Amino acid sequence: MNLSIDPRALQFLKFDGESGSDLGVYKTLLESTRAIPWKIDWATKQFAYIGPQIEDLLGWSQDSWNTVDDWASRMHADDREYVVNFCVSQSMAGVDHEADYRALTKDGDYVWIRDVVHVVRLDSGEVDCLIGFMFDITDRKRNEEQLLEMQKRLEALSFEDGLTGASNRRMFDSRLENEFESARRSGQPLTLMLIDIDHFKQFNDLYGHLKGDDCLVSVASALKQLGRRRRDVVARYGGEEFAILLPETDGEAARAMAERCRMMISGLKVPHETSDCADFVTASIGVGTVIPSPTMECRSFVQSVDKLLYAAKKNGRNRVSSAVL
């Protein structure tokens, strides 16, 4: 939002002691608005004027605003350095500008302020004074923060599997490419696990799709207990398949984690009467670890791990097939 200053409305600030009905009208109008007019003498850095509305907004009396130090000291510490430096540099350059910051109230709270500043120059070109308005933009900032939070949440949902709460395939593909390139640059190992719930079609046929959904949610919840580091990714890969991406995890650690994963799934003890592996739900896991060479492609890495998963299923299911690729 750009807020321009009408020079006519600030004539009474430019000419101290000026009288006249027009200036009186302008002053009355300005002091009856919610915007707070002010003037600072550039040479002394003192307030020549600030509107009485300042007390209603911040609680500080009109006569307590003496110098720019009063302005700066009543600013949130996190905003102060940037805002003061910005305003000083713009003013010295003779550039009109705006600044948003949190102003301290006398009660110890903070109000979001937008300062709109007009730089007045002498005929010589030197800065004479600064005049402007303070606007209370607290509600606007609150709305902006709520909108930003909503956008972040929507973005998160776009990368989340709606049923299980695990990352979705879109997120997995994106992170896989990034981590693969990162491993190539750093020379650190990257591990990928592909997990397939054994005989899941038969499970759905016997117990129904609602029970099938419950099973997927339970498995995802168990898997998320494994991938808890910041860069780990636990994703629903498709249907009854899950994928776990583990940066900086070597082959030995990967194999141990895959076995733990298999045991956690069987440990859920979800009944599966038509499985030929056990009386409860189990999973087959392919796990591969790689330090990508300059010529290796991410796609071939996934295909190699998929072959390991196929081997685990072919060799009797409910087992781990692993390799350092």
Model description:
By secondary structure, the chain is an alpha+beta fold. The protein has 2 domains: about 5-145, Beta-Lactamase (2-Layer Sandwich), CATH 3.30.450; about 160-325, Alpha-Beta Plaits. It is built from 11 helices and 10 strands. The strands form 2 sheets. Strands 2-1-5-4-3 form a 5-stranded antiparallel sheet, with helices on both faces. It has a 5-stranded mixed sheet with strand order 7-8-6-9-10, with helices on both faces. Strand 7 and strand 8 (about 240-245) form a beta hairpin. Helix 8 packs across helix 9 (about 210-225). The longest helix is centred in the middle third of the chain and has 21 residues, at about 140-160. It is elongated and about 90 Å long.
What is the approximate shape?
Answer: elongated
Strand order, largest beta sheet? 2-1-5-4-3
Q: Could you tell me the number of beta strands?
A: 10
Class per helix and strand makeup: alpha+beta
Give the amount of beta strand, in percent: 15-25%
Q: How far apart lie the N and C ends?
A: 56 Å
